[in-house]
Write a structure and sequence with these properties.
two-stranded parallel ribbon; single chain; mainly alpha; globular
Length: 201
C-alpha cells in the first residue's frame, strides 16, 4: 500500500478507507475470513493512522466524505473490539490491541491456536454454512446447494468470494469443479452452465 518513499499515496489511502469500511461490515456480521486475511485488514487502519498522525498532504487531500467515513467506521467498530488480545500495543491503536468479540468458528479457532485468545464463535457466514451442510446431509445435489444459497439471497451470496468460499468449504469439489464454481460466482457461468459442469464430474 505504500510507495517507495514509505508514505501512502492518496489513492492508496482512499482505497484503504474503502476496504476498512468493508472490513467493519465483515466484523459486524461475524468476520468470515481467515486469520491471515484479518491481519492484513487491520493493517489498513495502521496505514491510515500513520497518514493521519503525520498530517500528510496525502491524507489532507482526501475528500471530506472519506475522512468522515473513516471516523464513522472507527466508531462502529469500537463497540465490537472489546476483547484485549495484544496489551503491549498502544491503547490509541485499539484495532491492533483489541479484537472483535465474535467471529466465524474457523477464525476463532485459528486465533485461539495462534494467540491463546478466545473469541465467541458467532457469524452469519457460519449460519449459512450450517444450512448448506444440512442440505448436503439430506442428499441435496451439490449444484442445488450452491443455487439455493445464491438464489435465496443468503448472506454468503452477498459477494462472489464469500459464495465461493462457502461452496468450497461445504462441498467436496475437484479442481475443475472449483473453477466452475468460481466462474459461476463471478457471473461468467449461468446457473445452467454450473449445473452442466458439476454433472460432468
Amino acid at each position: 500500500m505504500s510507495g517507495s518513499s514509505g508514505e501512502a499515496s492518496s489513492v492508496d489511502l482512499e482505497e484503504s478507507a474503502r476496504r476498512w469500511k468493508k472490513f467493519a461490515g465483515y466484523c459486524r456480521d461475524g468476520y468470515p475470513w481467515e486469520m491471515e486475511d484479518y491481519l492484513v485488514d487491520v493493517t489498513l487502519r495502521s496505514v491510515i493512522n500513520e497518514a493521519m498522525r503525520d498530517g500528510s498532504a496525502q491524507f489532507e487531500s482526501l475528500p471530506e466524505q472519506v475522512k468522515r467515513e473513516i471516523l464513522e467506521t472507527d466508531s462502529s467498530l469500537l463497540s465490537l473490539f472489546t476483547t484485549e488480545a495484544f496489551p503491549r500495543a498502544p491503547e490509541s491503536e485499539w484495532w491492533i490491541r483489541n479484537v472483535p468479540e465474535y467471529a466465524s468458528r474457523r477464525f476463532c479457532q485459528e486465533f485461539e491456536e495462534a494467540y491463546n485468545v478466545k473469541i465467541t464463535p458467532n457469524s452469519k457466514f457460519d449460519a449459512d454454512l450450517d444450512d448448506m451442510f444440512r442440505l448436503v446431509d439430506e442428499g441435496t445435489p451439490p449444484v442445488e446447494v450452491c443455487l439455493k444459497a445464491k438464489n435465496c439471497g443468503w448472506y454468503v451470496a452477498t459477494e462472489p468470494a464469500l459464495l465461493f468460499r462457502a461452496c468450497t468449504l461445504v462441498l467436496s469439489l475437484q479442481r475443475k469443479e472449483r473453477r466452475a464454481v468460481w466462474a459461476w460466482a463471478i457471473g461468467d457461468f449461468s446457473d445452467s452452465t454450473l449445473q452442466m459442469k458439476l454433472s460432468e464430474s
